[in-house]
Design brief:
Blueprint: H1 2-7, H2 20-35, E1 40-45, H3 61-70, E2 77-82, E3 101-103, E4 108-110
Parallel strand pairs: 1-2
Antiparallel strand pairs: 3-4
Helix pairs in contact: 2-3
Length: about 110
Amino acid sequence: MPHLSDCLPHDPLLLDPVGGSAGMHNQISELIQVYGAESVNIIDVGGDAVARADEPRLRSPLADGLALSACDGLHPVAVVVAGAASTEKSTKPTYSLPQGCTQSPASPTKT
């Protein structure tokens, strides 16, 4: 996550899941207004949000599902997958980075 945040145009923000999907939707809506955001990027570390849900090493689909559900009705929304399959024993981290970022073997960097 620290290396990924170097490639993002803004600081990543964490959501409080206590209020469920509806509470997270309210948080995102408020953040859109406060920051004047034109889009929402959900960062999924490991790729659970784009999994089929029957993978044997799937670890945390609930948090990802809540975040995706919270974005219902918000446009545009993108999912950025960082460290795809990182919940499995991966030998090399992989990132799906925003346009304009490149990845070196050590860490992603801004271009």
